[in-house]
Specification:
Elements (H helix, E strand, L loop, with lengths): L2 H14 L6 H12 L6 H11 L5 H13 L4 E3 L7 E3 L6 E5 L5 E4 L2 H4 L5 H6 L8 E4 L2 H8 L2
Parallel strand pairs: 3-5
Antiparallel strand pairs: 1-2, 3-4
Helix pairs in contact: 2-3, 2-4, 3-4
């Protein structure tokens, strides 16, 4: 998606949700859209604080949670780690490195076509379907082989 399309999407969702478009919110969203490492709230805070020294961590964290509520970002929960934020809203899946915490996005038609179990389909409403693979990324895998 082009930068202008992302800006328009951001503006439209904020307006639809009754959120003011503030410079701080724009900075948080801008950092998310340029980051491809699924940042934590702390990482976003450290970057945004460079432009807005008076912004608090709580403001950044609440902004990220609000963005998730209105559908601008997804929240990724990792085992024992902090929440991570995913700005890519297109359908995709994740590989999570259990050693370094790196998250790698990938697509797979096979995973898109997975059948939702009948019991789940009957009892629940499914909004998204994502697969998370856990293992070692190439760098950590290489480190584990090196004595």
């Amino acid at each position: 998606m082009q930068n202008q399309a992302l800006t328009d999407q951001f503006s439209e969702l904020c307006k639809k949700s009754g959120l003011k478009i503030t410079p701080q919110r724009c900075a948080v969203y801008g950092h998310l859209m340029t980051s491809r490492n699924h940042p934590t709230a702390v990482e976003v805070y450290r970057t945004v604080r460079g432009r807005f020294p008076n912004i608090s961590y709580d403001t950044v964290n609440r902004t990220l949670l609000t963005f998730a509520e209105i559908g601008l970002v997804d929240i990724l929960q990792t085992k024992g780690g902090p929440r991570r934020f995913d700005p890519v809203m297109d359908n995709h899946h994740h590989f999570y490195c259990v050693d370094c915490g790196k998250i790698i996005d990938f697509t797979s038609q096979h995973y898109e076509d997975l059948k939702i179990p009948d019991r789940i389909r009957a009892e629940c409403t499914v909004f998204t379907q994502r697969v998370v693979l856990n293992g070692l990324c190439p760098r950590c895998r290489k480190k584990k082989r090196t004595p």
